[in-house]
Amino acid sequence: MTTVRLPLFPLNSVLFPGLVLPLNVFEERYRAMMRELLKTPEDEPRRFAVVAIRDGHEVAPSAPGMPDPTALPERGPAAGFGPGPMKAFHKVGCVADAATVRERADGTFEVLATGTTRVRLLSVDASGPFLTAELEPVPEEPGDEAGALAEGVLRAFRQYQKRLAGARERSLATGAELPDEPGVVSYLVAAAMVLDTPTKQRLLQAPDTASRLRDELKLLRAETAIIRSLPSLPAPDLTRGPTNLN
Questions:
Q1: Quick count: other Cβ atoms within 10 Å of Cβ 225?
Q2: pTM for this entry
Q3: Where are the alpha helices (DSSP H) in the chain?
Q4: For an engineered disulfide with 208, which of 42, 56, 117, 143 has Cβ 3.0 to 4.6 Å away?
């Protein structure tokens, strides 16, 4: 299978194909990455890979810390990820296409990217100003009964939204058209549910669309039942994703 080498952007969250990723880029290693992406002609995709962090920190320490208050902060492209950055990341990620890369006057960047395709992490190179990775595509197979499962997931997702809106004592926005293509449904629901990173990662790397939808159906039913029994529930807005610091 053909491999590709791309800049690597580790995050404390999971990016799914088709989902929008806003970024506020301020660390030098990622600013260097954006400057490199800006060298790509405008008629070509400005691509980088996003992987979820398994063990490490999205933002490297920038001041002396504990237990040694005099210790200098770690610097470099792999700062915060230990001596073997390959071990710090989940092995399946997503390619992001940066539609907007805007440099501010202070040298930081405002980036708006969209997830495109899944990739598997084969190796990580920390020899340059930012991390790069060798990646192989992970094809999306439909699996068995994906269409019927998507219909069930959409019904369960609507109930989940209603329960979550009720638990937060907010009205649920109506009229939004949800997709019916099974693969799109599976990624949209995975991104919109209030789940921890390991669970979202499990959904991202599901072997096929039908398997992801089956998992989501179980999660939606379980989460809806939990929300039903709680008087209130703090949760991020389902229609908005938080801006990552990097």
A1: 10
A2: 0.82
A3: 28-37, 85-88, 146-167, 182-192, 197-204, 209-229
A4: 143
How far CA 159 is from CA of 165, 193, 225, in Å, comes to: 10, 12, 10
What is the C-alpha separation between 194 and 196, in angstroms, rounded?
A: 7
119-122, Cβ contacts within 8 angstroms, sequence gap of 24 or more: 119/4, 119/49, 119/92, 119/93, 119/94, 119/95, 120/91, 120/92, 120/93, 121/49, 121/51, 121/86, 121/89, 121/90, 121/91, 121/92, 121/93, 122/3
CA 99 to chain centre: 16
pLDDT in tens, 61-113: 444 444 555 544 456 898 888 778 889 999 999 999 999 999 999 999 999 99
